[in-house]
UniProtKB/TrEMBL annotation:
Annotated GO MF terms: galactolipase activity; lipoprotein lipase activity
Listed InterPro entries: AB_hydrolase_fold, Lipase, PLAT/LH2_dom, PLAT/LH2_dom_sf, TAG_lipase
GO terms for biological process, alphabetical: lipid catabolic process
Localization, UniProt: Cell projection, Neuron projection; Secreted; Zymogen granule membrane
Main subcellular location: other
Gene: Pnliprp1
Protein name: Pancreatic lipase-related protein 2
Length: 257
């Protein structure tokens, strides 16, 4: 039984007979997309974990792409009707859009077990544990036999618009060079499944022999990594033409470590 942002008003804090609960089926998975308090935030979705596994994409309160201005939201790509509904309840309706995308992407929407969204964002809950991570949506039940007791809260990020799934990577860069410079470092991943755009790993002072780490949510599952593109820029013209390279670049995949 999949709960697509189950309702908060009149249901939150009520006995289990009244609302959706893990006792309602052999396996209950929940997607929380609008779990901010109803007052004053107008959140329509229930906040607490109530299933066997509970997914909180983007933290579960504010979904990317739902903060657009009213005009662009109403004149939506999917039509006026869809756009108007999104304007009224965009976060709430993301739950079924993620679910429908999950049918097409069996390897997408990996949920990472974590104590909070803030810890997930900082990379503390990366990579997946030994037993792996469940996939939010249609294929969540593949994880059914791996659940231990209690509630399992899972976090992930999604895109702003279709297609919604993102794949998380940890990228670590150790720089080489002679002198420290100011600027930024970008990395793009190339692989058997596709290529990513450039992602910023760090910006500010770049010191040779220092190691910089970033967690990137890529728009494509690159599969087996075949190449990494390294790019750095020092924001302004420097007459000494400083050189900077990457001594090593390490890419770690969340799913299989």
């Amino acid at each position: 039984l999949s709960g697509l942002d189950p309702a908060q008003p009149y249901f939150q804090g009520t006995p289990t007979e009244v609302r959706l609960d893990k006792s309602d089926a052999d396996f209950v998975d929940i997607i929380h997309t609008d779990s901010a308090p109803t007052i004053p935030n107008l959140g329509f979705g229930i906040t607490p974990a109530i299933g066997h596994i509970d997914f909180y994409p983007n933290g579960g309160k504010q979904m990317p792409g739902c903060g657009k201005n009213p005009v662009s939201q109403i004149v939506d790509l999917d039509g006026i009707w869809e756009g108007t509904r999104d304007f009224v309840a965009c976060n709430h309706l993301r739950s079924y859009k993620y679910y429908s995308d999950s049918i097409i992407y069996p390897d997408g929407f990996l949920g990472y077990p974590c104590a909070s969204y803030e810890l997930f964002q900082s990379g503390k809950c990366f990579p997946c544990p030994e037993e792996g991570c469940p996939n939010m949506g249609h294929y969540a039940d593949k994880f059914k036999d791996k659940i231990k007791n209690g509630f399992l809260k899972l976090y992930l990020n999604t895109g702003e618009a279709r297609d919604f799934p993102l794949w998380r990577y940890k990228v670590t860069v150790t720089l080489s060079g002679r002198t420290k410079v100011k600027g930024y470092v970008n990395v793009a991943l190339y692989g058997s499944g596709g290529n990513t755009k450039q992602y910023q790993i760090t910006k500010g002072t770049l010191k040779p022999d220092n190691t910089y780490t970033a967690y990137i949510d890529a728009e494509v599952n690159v599969g087996k990594v075949t190449k990494v593109k390294f790019l750095w820029n020092n924001n302004w013209i420097n007459p000494t033409f400083p050189k900077l390279g990457a001594a090593t670049i390490t890419v770690e995949v969340g799913q299989n470590r």
